[in-house]
Structures
1.
Amino acid sequence: MRQEKTISKWFIIKSMALFLTLGFSTNAMAQMTVKLSDSEVKNIVQRSYQYVAMYNVIQKFALDPVSGEMFMDGFNKPAAATSLADHTLKTIARPNNDTLYQGTVLDLRHEPVIVEYPAFDSKYLVLETSSYDHYAAVPLASSEGDFKKPVKVLFYTERTEGYQGQKIEGVDLIEKVDGDFFLAFLRAMPHQADPARMARIVKALESINVVPLSKFQGKATIDSDDANFPAYGKSDGDVFENNLLEVMQFIFNHTSFDPDSDMDQAVLAAYKPLGVEPGKTFDPAKVAGIDGARFRAIAGEVQKNVLSTLTDKDLQARTTPQMFMPKGQIDLETQVVQSVAGPIGLPGYQARYLPVATKDGKPMNAQHDYVLKMGKDQQPPATAFWSLTLYDFKNGFFIPNAPKKYSVGENTGFKLNDEGGIEIYISEKQPEGVPAENWLPINRSDIGLDAMFRIYSPDAEKMKTWEIPELEMLPAAK
């Protein structure tokens, strides 16, 4: 028995020496032995999607000029989009074309940050917030009587240095949030039909101020330009393939996870065997080796499945009540759907995002023209306003067109018929007799299309019985 133990010990020592001679380490050995089934990879992808999608969105807003008017050129800097988005916006899938934005990405690691909002003259305003974890919150909304007077909001996390939530003189609202890098996003109805009113709204958006606590109190500002961010991707697939573990390690280190949240604990459990845990420093030699191409392929399958089922009524019934809700009020399926279809949205009591199906059930394609007909009582039950927006199916971007017409609604304009109904045309050419306001241009090509209703301040009771109108394919022009 002693001889067997001695031989075993000798074998282990020789094996270790061989690995070291070949340039491997014990961590490399661990990399070589981690094997994941397709179901395990899919589980990791699904539980990661909310983080990967929001990491890309937040980093692009802060660091990538492709964000256009919403490019924030760093952190703790306000940026106001004072004109409606157009087809050049590539930061996020399925953006809207009917509200104006003001946003900032806050860096809350070293000190709290205060955002100063003025009073607004708009009937619809919502302050939406989210971190890398993609759980949404609404600290302020006009539907709750907010924005009638100026307000100062302080944001911090459990990791913010030197601050634990104590009252600060001059601050109206204190918000503890989950992420050290945090998006505060204000949406405002522009009231385009009233140019003077819209000008006042734009001026208010441009006056929003972002102030670190040290500066707010008249002290020397703390230098916060010391973050070492992993690369973000042009698409979510880029991160899944190229640097998933590095990105998730960074996110884990800058996000609060709830020990009582099943979803929080499940994503931590999925990454622990891969060597990624909160509080660790990312080291490629100390994490498991994963097949990036395989992760990208499975992420692509998840994305394809979501996009192909967006108009499924059973899926909508399950996910719509949970869309963009806070942690604990949204399940994994809904998180995946909203993260794939278009990150950053409002909870259902503030807005509804509803894909529109065709009457024949076939996917829309730009090789055909379509019409959506609504009678007076069939229009979306919005107490603020509604719109119908058109996208390309694959990327969720606006369809490029010379008139820069991407949606039909109160802000971009529409014309009702004599009975109070409306017909909206999606076509290559403006149909004869159809008002330009009711026309959504497309380019004749073999690409998928995607139409979505946005219903702002929905009437909860009427929404229970309202049926989404369906698109009808028009006969080919002769």
2.
Amino acid sequence: MLHRIGLVCLLGIAACTTAPAGTTPPQDFSEAWSQGVGDYLGLATTTTVTTADGVSTFEFDVKSGPMCLRGDPFRMAVRDQKSDNLLIFLQGGGACWSKFCLAIQKAPAGIPKLDVIDPSRETNPFRAWNQVYLPYCDGSMFAGEADADDNGDGKLDRQQHGLRNLSAALDVAIKQFPHPKRIVLMGSSGGGFGTIPAVLLVRKLWPDPEILVVQDSGTGTGKEGDPAFLATLVSEFHVQRFFPPSCTECTTSAHLTPLLDWELARDSKLRVAAFSSYNDSIMSSVFLKIDPDVFKKGLLEATGSLHTAYPDRYKRFLTAGTMHTTMLGDVSGLVGDDLTAVTLPPDAMSALATIVIGSIDTTKLGDVTMAAWLAAAVDNTAVWQDLLAP
């Protein structure tokens, strides 16, 4: 096929451009777009917009699609700081499927003041950026489009409209901030997983700027040795449309990282900064229910292959221990302030009671704090290195 294209060029039948060796053209996500990942863009309608403390909260009409896990309205918020840069933040808060449910089921108004989304925190590299904040209230990692009656009583138990929620929020974002020079797409925990499919929509709406994806304890690492686990979630959440046919490992791997690999291979303006601890207690023991050392093995292999393939564009900050998330600095960033809005299975209570959460100032590898590493990642300076604890 390559020889045929070359012949066509030489004969002057078609105009030809040749990319430099080792590079790829940006934003070549047409295969994914053709499967309809953007089908819900432009469809949602807002019912109310409220403003307080410089933050505007948008609430969406549930009849237009966006909603939380139990049918409550979905909300998102923006903070306009007249910046050329844009932070899109996907909040964490569990996951919910037929055999397990630990999830926030309501979307609060506003933007909480938590480390990387706190404009008053001096060490926050994003304190002066425009901010788009997405609460996480559907348990499907911002990607689902499924309704489920798990107990067979004829009533819906799960309304997982994550893709509709994400699309509605990005519709607001593109109207508020149409021309950012730089975009950071960041997510914690379930939101970290959500950044992987969200890249496709963000790039569709903003085709030109560089996108830095920041994953906080949601690197896409799944249940090592058990691809059926991820396949179950894919089936229940109905997220098959995110997996292009050419990404053959997307449907056979135990991890979500092959989709990120597919994206990095097709977008030279895409970079990724990934954080996790080796033995993340919430990811290993609560959600995946595997031995922490098995989680570590999968984490190192899945993320290591990405760093090897894209050493300048995919870098990790991996610490020893059991920490879960380091960019929020407060457990309320994961479970919210309203515990009545959280589904908590009994077998998760003991792990949550001992959860270790870091912050951008206290989490370190050597002399490099997470705050400094993130700042270096944004500017792509020498401090942004692939850092692994012994």
3.
Amino acid sequence: MNNQSTSSNGMDRQKEVYIQGIGGVKQKIPFDSKGLEATASKVMSDEAYAYIAGGAGDGLTMKNNLNAFSRYQIVPEMLKNVENRDSTIELFGKRHPSPFFLAPIGVLEMAHKNADIAVAKAAEACSIPYIFSNQASYPMEKVAKHMPTTSKWFQLYWSKSRELVKSLVQRAETCGCEAIVVTLDTSLLGWRTADLNGAYLPFLRGLGIAQYTSDPVFQKIIDSFIDNPEQDTKPPLNLKTLSVLRQMLMSYPDQGLIKKLKEGRARAAVKAFTQTYSNPALSWEDLNYLRKCTSLPILLKGILSPTDAQLAISYGMDGIIVSNHGGRQVDGSISALEALEKISPVINGQIPILMDSGIRTGADAFKAIALGANAVCIGRPYAYALAIGGEKGVFELLSNFKADFDLTMGLSGCKTIADVKKQVLLKS
């Protein structure tokens, strides 16, 4: 990977690929989004693919997200002297070489054993900020060590324990995260049919809860479950159940297998997680508590309504992420791109707007920025690349996104991000 370019220049990327091709070397990661997903589906387990690729209900929102981009056509303008292009952006006083962030995706160990660490290394190499997932496979402190120079943010799922919320946020601040992203649209788990068909939820197997089991406040919550065991619904006892128990034990950190089994901490951790994970009673007023916990910028993720965008400003939030969780929560929801077009005039530059859900190419990102996003978040594509090629796969994918965006800018007559405006689009 070290001999590959990290340039955002699309011509450089194309040249690199074609020159390697002379020697019979082809990139492992498909360049087209459909090929990328299809290839990933072949190397991932059925459960992993269902979890990462699946959406809510019949997948109408996922289709809406993708179809929304096709309703906007780019109108290229000629003879604009785009020889030297600049795709840098500035957010919260810091400059970034491209308008890309990596969206938080949980349970990446389902895609690759190195999970968040592999993604962090690739993000660092490409200078693309990474929003650490609250449902990560590795603790944030371990992942942050692999991003010494590139920005990292932390996604917060607001649990039922305020003490846990405070602890997670302060850990994020201590390990160098530069912003807190509060995901609002998962106060309840959506009706995810692919997961339900497989009767598979990774968290019940101890996967994706590393931020919790590494947290001192959560460890105290585990103690309370051990000291006061509840009578809960238990799965049937068979070889499959024992296999899941073993998976729980292996996922739980820092103790020997016998000790974990004896104390029951692994199973108690899963129970504690399911009881505290999310908080459907959350309201706008609760944001005042979060503001007291940290001096970092706070962004709200999951905003789709202009009214909510206005409320975010009135409650002193520092930014928003227009998102419908990649179509995983509400079936038949408005697409994120349509929401962005409605929200952008309301925000009118008062706070930064990021956008995710449906971004599959650099050209998609171009359209989102033209409609008012300051930056966009790549989601599923990097998880697919991780499954196919680990760290190198993610690096290749991010290099392709930067190149595609750069070429789309230049070929459309845009020299800088400031030139990417709504006027370059035609809506059908």
